């Protein structure tokens, strides 16, 4: 009898659980639903179950199909709220109620690390975060996930009202975009952030769309050997990998940071320095650094400030055995920390740093004058020899970075969100595709078309951020992967309803993550305000229109002049290079003549081609009267770096 009752209980419980109405996580309290178009809502229930939905006085019903799936469309509604969305089954014994639902504009923000870069990591965060409350802005952040097959749902998430708590870890570019757009249109704005640093465009594109492209088919074929067994094992290894990075093992946080620890057999490394200057050309794992410093009276017993310069993104700092900070993914960009006076003694003190050496990096990087201790009056340099030791902790496993595999992110972080009602997409990505910079001109349009087709809402607006200036400045005109990729991004504008923001003046030579995201978000919002919302403003800098060769000079015509061409900070125009038939480029002298720029060079008597801001980190200063930078371009079609032999 007990077994029979237990079996009946299990059956009833299983049936009840199966019969429960569920919706994807993207539906929650505080969500924004897209205005002025039919509103899709979908979920699961028991097969054949009647599901009733009520929103803003509109009642709709549907029946779950044989797979237990259902979908409805509410009629288009004007902006407004807050409302309740109520979903119930036919017996009225289950009801899901989502509260504080707004009708407005929803933007899908995606890309890699520069779109993922958080508000708290960006310039002006201390002033911005405390004042971020705006109930008409709602934020939904999709957790990282990958999958071999398209998923029905994302990892667990929810919508949040924009405030000082929710905005802190949200995309800075997307937040500043939303802030400016919401102020312009004065309706609720929702941002769905689906981002992942270090990922290529093909990871965000569906398998079906990739198979329609010759290069895409090659990428898909690479995944054919991956089985569920390999995938699950690699997922476990990845969890172990990050557990070791984030959590000290073997008690080393206490042992290796102890001032009395014997480090006499540790090796020496010169700081500033990186891992490739050490024992091996490539190493992944946890490294401990130690330095003994002799502090005299001006420092002993005082609160001190330490500057670590530019360390790797994941590290912990200890002073005389006490943890001073635990930094993950550069949460503190300035790497300045206070060492309390209670820890600072006269004589020998020990600094210890636990640092994750990942992807060929590791160490404290320069410039060296940014690595020091200070009492507020004088500085004590920490440059020079430090001791270091590898493999004091568990070795991190070799892992597969499935987020870089074609279509795997799409399956888990894009597909489950379709067809949630959207106003459009904003996109900041391309860095990871520099090795295929030329092919990006076919791969990005492939993804854009893929998303528009999958969402089934027409040619939804797509606004992208062109890559900024980055890396070493070249002394002479040269080719560059980032130059080619910017051109590929610009060529994407041939697609309808596609727009671009130029930030060629916002980069940092030695930092792939420029921290001034305010400007990026504002410019992106202006491009959208003009092209999507019809606001009358100048949203772009000068755009190359045409050119003509007249003798030994080239005359270049531009559009988007506003009230005319200008030179930033005055002085000579920089960034133009010209070449003759020999295809050798020389820096050009350039002058503004009305609405044209006229370029020439004494070294090129018969010029045939001109390039502007062509390089990884070009020095360029042509702007329009609205202080917006001219967009990089070239007039030639000569072969460039990464261009394949078709």
Automatic annotation (TrEMBL):
InterPro entries: Galactose-bd-like_sf, Ig-like_fold, SASA, SGNH_hydro_sf, SIAE
Keyword Signal (UniProt): yes
UniProt keyword annotations, A-Z: Hydrolase, Signal
Ranges that cross the membrane: none
Signal peptide: 1-19
Sialate O-acetylesterase domain residues: 105-209, 403-528
Protein name: Sialate O-acetylesterase
Annotated source species: Carboxylicivirga linearis
């Amino acid at each position: 009898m007990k077994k029979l009752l237990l079996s009946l209980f299990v059956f009833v419980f299983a049936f009840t659980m199966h019969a429960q109405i569920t919706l994807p996580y993207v539906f929650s309290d505080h969500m924004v639903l897209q205005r002025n178009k039919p509103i899709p809502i979908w979920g699961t229930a028991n097969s054949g179950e009647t599901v009733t939905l009520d929103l803003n006085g509109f009642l709709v019903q549907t029946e779950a199909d044989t797979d237990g799936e259902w979908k409805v469309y509410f009629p288009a509604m004007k902006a407004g709220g807050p409302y309740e969305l109520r979903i119930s089954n036919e017996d009225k014994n289950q009801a899901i109620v989502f509260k504080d639902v707004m009708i407005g504009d929803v933007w899908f923000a995606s890309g890699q690390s520069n779109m993922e870069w958080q508000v708290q990591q960006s310039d002006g965060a201390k002033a911005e975060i405390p004042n971020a409350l705006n109930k008409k802005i709602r934020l939904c952040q999709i957790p990282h996930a990958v999958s071999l097959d398209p998923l029905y749902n994302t990892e667990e998430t929810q919508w949040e009202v924009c405030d000082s708590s929710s905005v802190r870890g949200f995309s800075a570019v997307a937040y500043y975009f939303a802030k400016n757009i919401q102020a312009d249109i004065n309706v609720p704005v929702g941002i769905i952030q689906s981002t992942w640093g270090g990922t290529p465009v093909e990871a965000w594109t569906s398998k079906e769309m990739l198979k329609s492209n010759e290069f895409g088919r090659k990428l898909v074929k690479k995944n054919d050997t991956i089985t569920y067994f390999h995938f699950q094992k690699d997922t476990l290894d990845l969890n172990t990998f990050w557990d070791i990075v984030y959590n000290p093992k073997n008690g080393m946080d206490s042992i290796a940071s102890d001032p009395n620890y014997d480090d006499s057999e540790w090796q020496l490394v010169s700081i500033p320095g990186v891992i490739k200057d050490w024992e091996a050309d490539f190493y992944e794992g946890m490294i401990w650094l130690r330095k003994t410093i002799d502090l005299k009276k001006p420092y002993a017993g005082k609160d001190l400030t330490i500057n670590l310069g530019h360390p790797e993104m994941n590290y912990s700092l200890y002073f005389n055995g006490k943890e001073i900070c635990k930094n993950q993914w550069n949460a503190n960009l300035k790497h300045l920390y206070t060492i309390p006076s209670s820890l600072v003694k006269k004589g020998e003190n020990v600094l210890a740093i636990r640092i994750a050496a990942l992807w060929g990096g590791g160490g404290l990087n320069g410039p060296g004058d940014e690595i020091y201790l200070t009492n507020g009056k004088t500085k004590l340099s920490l440059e020079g020899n430090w001791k270091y030791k590898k493999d004091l902790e568990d070795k991190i496993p070799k892992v597969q970075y499935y987020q870089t595999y074609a279509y795997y992110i799409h399956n888990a972080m894009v597909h489950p969100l379709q067809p949630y009602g959207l106003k459009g997409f904003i996109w900041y990505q391309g860095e990871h595709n520099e090795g295929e910079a030329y092919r990006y001109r076919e791969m990005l349009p492939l993804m854009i078309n893929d998303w528009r087709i999958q969402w089934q809402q027409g040619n939804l607006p797509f606004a992208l951020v062109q890559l900024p200036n980055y890396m070493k400045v070249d002394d002479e005109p040269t080719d560059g992967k980032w130059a080619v990729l910017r051109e590929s991004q610009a060529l994407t504008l041939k697609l309808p309803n596609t727009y671009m923001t130029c930030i060629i003046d916002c980069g940092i030579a030695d930092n792939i993550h420029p921290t001034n995201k305010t400007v990026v978000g504002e410019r992106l919002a202006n491009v959208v305000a003009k092209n999507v919302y019809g606001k009358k403003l100048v949203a772009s800098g000068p755009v190359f229109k045409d050119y003509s060769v007249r003798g030994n000079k080239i005359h270049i015509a531009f559009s988007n002049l506003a009230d005319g061409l200008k030179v930033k900070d005055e002085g000579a125009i920089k960034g133009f290079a010209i070449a003759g038939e020999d295809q050798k480029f020389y820096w050009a002298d350039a002058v503004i003549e009305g609405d044209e720029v006229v370029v020439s060079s004494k070294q090129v008597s018969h010029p045939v081609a001109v390039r502007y801001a062509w390089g990884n980190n070009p020095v360029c200063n042509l702007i329009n009267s609205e202080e917006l930078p001219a967009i990089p371009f070239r007039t030639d079609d000569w072969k460039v770096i990464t261009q394949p032999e078709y």
